[in-house]
């Protein structure tokens, strides 16, 4: 009897890129053509652009965590864990399961979509005292932390402590940082009405960025509009400024200011997952250098995309241009790389990825927003409709769309709630605790494992 061994396709990462790739493979590959496996610590796809709204309580965490097991075509084996190394010569991916067990997963074709981690710098105290906005757990924790500062300040008789508890610092003038500062400032502005012992004037939000402009991708006009909205709300925006050092009760800016605070939120960009460094291949600013087809040159059956890959941007007539690490590109790259994987399996010709950016949307909470869909500059309610319409349409399942729409309607009618759940209240939950960037193997350790196995 002849035993047919099907090729194994291993997808790493359940972000926009990885999930879109898996879903397309499930739809277009017959069950007898290949075995599919997905490496991810969580069996859901997180809709990252809406994390600031989870942190501010507008949306519940479950509403933007889309289950991977709801698909009717679902037949992918989920490996619950994180990839910590890849040996492209041996065609082995080393995975640390959520139990702590380390296993070797062999593959014939691998799609690397591990995403990114928060980009940090060698700033004293940063990873020990800053909090991020990259995971669902971080967003839920930040919400609890911010509300707890109001509770502690309200109960305190120490004026200095009260003032420090009511100062909040957000670093990063990109979309994540701007939306985080805007949404959380709105939360504290509304919440303080329930704290009659607190002076609203003591609540101060700082948004800083080393860049000279806020969200420069939006252009000068919309960037300035967003800046004016934030300053009108009382958020102190400082550009050309960063953090010199961070402590448990104060933050020192590079312009010499010392801000007494217990809340430092770091959103100053992203860096490719450390998994990419384990391949020992060429990188461009930390992202894996791949072809326009998203394949790794010189290594058969290796593809990479999303935040972790420097995919050439063929839509721009600029030499060396690569696609930015946005959800828009990741989703489309996921579908396209799936087609190229299938073409590779069937002996067909792969095609280059080409996509023209459709624009940007920024939801600043309430009725404030700035958007640039298809190059059209929008402000206020039209911009808000465009922003929320885009996000709503991008959610993958009808269940997720229903939950998000219901949350938006409920929040607009009933207002914010200020319940502190006590999420991880006994743990520090800083960047060091959430990112796990020290969990990856060196190329030498990977070779030792694959050769031994």
UniProtKB/TrEMBL annotation:
Full protein name: NADH-quinone oxidoreductase subunit E
Entries under SUPFAM superfamilies matching the protein: FAD/NAD(P)-binding domain
Pfam families per the UniProt record, alphabetical: Pyr_redox_2
GO MF terms, alphabetically ordered: NADH dehydrogenase activity
Record keywords: FAD, Flavoprotein, NAD, Oxidoreductase
Span of domain FAD/NAD(P)-binding: 8-334
Family assignment from sequence similarity: Belongs to the NADH dehydrogenase family.
Gene3D superfamilies: 3.50.50.100
InterPro entries: FAD/NAD-bd_sf (IPR036188), FAD/NAD-binding_dom (IPR023753), NDH-2 (IPR045024)
